[in-house]
Design goal:
Alpha-D-Glucose-1,6-Bisphosphate, Chain A, domain 4, eight-stranded antiparallel β-sheet, disordered N terminus
Length: 167
C-alpha cells in the first residue's frame, strides 16, 4: 500500500508490505545484515562496508525508470509499534550514485513490527525534496512524485519478497 503528500519543498511517501515470518526472524535478518538484504532485494552494482549501491526501478505505463543509488543505514532503534508491541526502526538515506544533483535524496525510516505471531509488517516512510529548484518542482508535480512513489513501493515490495524467500 502507498500514500503520498506534498508540501512546498519536501514530499512524503509511505508504503508497506508484509512478510509471512515471525517478527524476531525478520528483525534479525534486517538488523544483522540490512545492506545485504537490500542488495539481494534489488539489482546491486557494488557493496561497501557502510553503503550498498543498488538499482531502483519504477514503471509508469510503458516507461521504466532506473537509477543506481547508494543506500546508507544511519541508525537502528528499538521502540514500540502502533499496536504497543515491539518495533525496530531503521533510518535510511539513499541518493543517486551518478549525478546526484539530478535526482532527489530520500530520507526514510523503515519500521519493522509484528502483526501476528507469524506475520511482520515492513513500513517505509520517506521524504524527499525535488532537485533543480522550480523546474524540479514542476517536473515533480507532473510525473516526478509518481516515479518516487513507484520506486519506494517497488523497493519495499522487493525487500519483503526477499525476506519471504529467506528461510
Amino acid at each position: 500500500m502507498l500514500a503520498a503528500s506534498w508540501g512546498m519543498s519536501n514530499h512524503t511517501v509511505r508504503c508497506y508490505d508484509y512478510v509471512n515470518q515471525p517478527y524476531p526472524d525478520v528483525c534479525a535478518a534486517l538488523t544483522k545484515e540490512p545492506l545485504g538484504v537490500f542488495q539481494r532485494a534489488t539489482t546491486a552494482a557494488s557493496a561497501r562496508a557502510d553503503a550498498v549501491s543498488t538499482q531502483l526501478h519504477a514503471k509508469l505505463g510503458p516507461l521504466e525508470v532506473a537509477a543506481d543509488i547508494d543506500i546508507r543505514v544511519i541508525r537502528t532503534e528499538e521502540g514500540r509499534s502502533p499496536f504497543g508491541g515491539p518495533a525496530t526502526r531503521m533510518s535510511l538515506v539513499w541518493e543517486a550514485k551518478r549525478r546526484p544533483g539530478l535526482f532527489p535524496t530520500m530520507n526514510a525510516v523503515l519500521a519493522i513490527y509484528p502483526l501476528t505471531a507469524t506475520e511482520t509488517q515492513l513500513e517505509l516512510e520517506g521524504t524527499y525534496a525535488p532537485p533543480l529548484g522550480m523546474l524540479g518542482q514542476a517536473l515533480d508535480a507532473t510525473i516526478g512524485h509518481r516515479v518516487a512513489e513507484a520506486t519506494v513501493h517497488r523497493f519495499i515490495e522487493q525487500v519483503a519478497t526477499s525476506l519471504r524467500e529467506t528461510r
